[in-house]
Design brief:
6-stranded mixed beta sheet, alpha/beta, elongated, 2 domains, 326 residues, D-Maltodextrin-Binding Protein, domain 2, 19% strand
């Protein structure tokens, strides 16, 4: 009788745990794919490849990268949102399809809260606001004074409609009554080239792209949009230090890792543990520094809280910039 009760209990327990428990115990047993919301060779892609190498070692399996650029990152994000929740499909994305898309686009093919599981934010993206050498300003306050004196005559560049460089400069223009005009470029490189040529006086960009021109003297950095000064530009203050403490000038995640919703909790926990550990490796830290990124590696709960807390601020940025798209 006792043996019968024991066998019955074990059978009921197995049914209650269901296939997810067995699946989690066997995972990983085949190749894991990191779907990247960006084309090859950029910062997001490079980080994905280093992460794939680190996870491959820690999980003792093959991890590959699948680039799916397009639709402002929504193509890759949608693909992972629809993937089987078995731990073999991960998303590595920049901020646009996760943080911004729901406010910028009328049709988004996924719901972040419903369709994706939060794992970690790998890093935050510190940006540099800079002017060309002909602008008579060395600080943010001097720039604002100059722009106000030339109200309606100053253009600012961005590396695309709805990009962080667009939204943040639009907020600066609106909040300080500068009446600047937005000039959108197809990427950061042509924007910086026009700055150097004197076509646009001011723009917000990444350290990796702007650093050589700052070193040469063609561009002058005014402030860092981030929580801390950058080691590469130790004398350049943050926006808060420069007297611009707006919440809008706080950084959001530069690269983040997610999985399909309903991925078994034990698998998500393992992915979170190993991905956060990868952030601390020398290989990842070297790439963060090269791109002017600040390591994070926060918990899934901290990632979710950042996502929820940022909503009202992002909605304001999009409204001010007019960066709505169909």
């Amino acid at each position: 009788m006792r043996k019968f009760i024991t066998r019955t209990f074990l059978a009921i327990a197995a049914i209650a745990c269901g296939p997810h428990a067995a699946q989690a115990q066997e995972w990983p047993s085949r190749t894991i794919t990191i779907v990247v919301a960006a084309p090859p060779a950029g910062a997001t892609d490079v980080l994905a490849r280093v992460l794939a190498d680190e996870l491959g070692k820690s999980l003792k399996t093959t991890v590959i990268v699948d680039n799916k650029p397009g639709a402002s990152g929504m193509l890759a994000t949608g693909a992972v949102a629809r993937a089987q929740p078995d731990g073999y499909s991960l998303l590595l994305s920049h901020a646009t399809p996760i943080y911004y898309a729901q406010y910028m686009f009328s049709k988004v093919p996924y719901d972040v809260r419903r369709d994706l599981a939060f794992i970690t934010e790998l890093c935050s993206a510190s940006l540099v606001i800079a002017v060309n050498k002909d602008v008579p300003a060395k600080t943010m306050k001097e720039f604002v004074t100059w722009a106000q004196a030339n109200k309606g005559k100053v253009n600012y560049g961005s590396f695309g409609v709805g990009s962080s460089s667009h939204l943040l400069n639009a907020h600066l223009s609106e909040s300080r009554k500068l009446d600047m005009t937005h000039i959108a470029y197809k990427g950061e490189a042509p924007m910086v080239q026009d700055m150097i040529a004197g076509q646009i006086p001011v723009a917000i960009g990444t350290l990796g792209t702007m650093a050589p021109h700052i070193t040469s003297g063609s561009l002058k950095p005014l402030a860092i949009i981030g929580d801390k000064r950058l080691p590469e530009l130790p004398n350049v203050p943050t926006m808060t230090e420069a007297g611009f403490p707006d919440d809008e000038f706080k950084p959001l995640g530069g690269a983040m890792v997610m999985a399909p919703a309903k991925t078994p909790a034990p698998i998500l926990a393992r992915l979170e543990k190993e991905t956060r550990a990868a952030v601390q490796t020398a290989a990842m830290k070297a790439r963060f520094q090269a791109f002017g990124l600040v390591p994070m590696g926060n918990s899934s709960e901290e990632f979710r809280k950042n996502f929820e807390a940022s909503g009202p601020m992002i909605q304001r940025l999009v409204t001010v910039s007019g960066a709505k798209a169909e």
